[in-house]
Amino acid sequence: MTPALGGTLGVCFDAEIAGEKRFLKTHLPGTPPARALPEKPTCLRGSTAAPSCSTDSDVPLADGTARLCLLMPALLPLAGPMQPAEAAAIAGECSERLGDWRPDHTPTFEQYLASAARALPMLSDRNLIELATADETHRLIARLEERLPKLPAALCHGDFGPKNIMLAGTEPRVIDWEDAFAGIAGYDYLYWLTFMENRAFLQTAAFGRTGLSPEIERAVLVLVVLLKSYLAVHSGAYLKHAVPPQARIAEILALR
């Protein structure tokens, strides 16, 4: 085993077990583990019978505590930017494979909406978004909340970004399901569009790929950018961002 950089659980290793390359993640002593979903789903494009990518177990330590360790095959990052059609297809395949499975204690979309209700006044009070932007954002999120009971439900990945789509050979796999939640079909693809490396696709690929109406697609995009901005303000990371919250949200509202 050799140490590897990165990973959300805190400590990562490249490992070779029985001649096969593996990737192991765990967490620092004294910090709570970010436990993934039980039987973590991993989607292999083009196959509806792909094996689970990773397993985890609580490994007992000498001091009487236990450490959650997650073991998965060694995967490779994408060779280049993914195109919107492929990202939409992979996100759709994940929703289809998972069906109506909802693990216990999975967060809900209503919790995301509740966070948005806190985020909007906080950003407004700090003058990080303009009044007109805040008003239109509020209208769209209210519309999303009103329509929610009629929208197609799905178990969403919650962090469907470029770094969580990797390759097993030439086949894409979606990893790190720790942020999964009971949401709506199409959310993950729209979330994928909000990453800075995919920002150029917003002008051409924001609408028509999820099965949702354009108004709801816009509302989901606004919700995602609002919540990302909210987290960035809480952490202070927004001070280093090249694009401030007002510009990010206004960009979504201006899409045609």
Describe the structure.
This protein is an alpha+beta fold. It has seven helices and ten strands. A hairpin with a 2-residue loop joins strand 2 and strand 3 (20-26). Helix 2 (109-125) packs antiparallel against helix 3 and helix 4 packs across helix 6. The longest helix has 22 residues, at 214-235. The model is unreliable at 43-52 (pLDDT under 50).
Mean pLDDT over the full residue set = 88
User: Which range does the strand content fall in?
Assistant: 15-25%
Distance between the termini: 51 Å
**Poorly predicted segments:** 43-52
Overall 3D shape? globular
Q: From N to C, what is the helix and strand string?
A: EEEEEEHHHEEEEHHHH
Helix content: 25-40%
Largest sheet: 5 strands, antiparallel
Task: Indicate the structural class.
Answer: alpha+beta
Task: Write down the Rg.
Answer: 19 Å
Order of adjacent strands in the largest pleated sheet: 1-2-3-5-4
How many beta-strand elements?
10
The number of helical segments is: 7
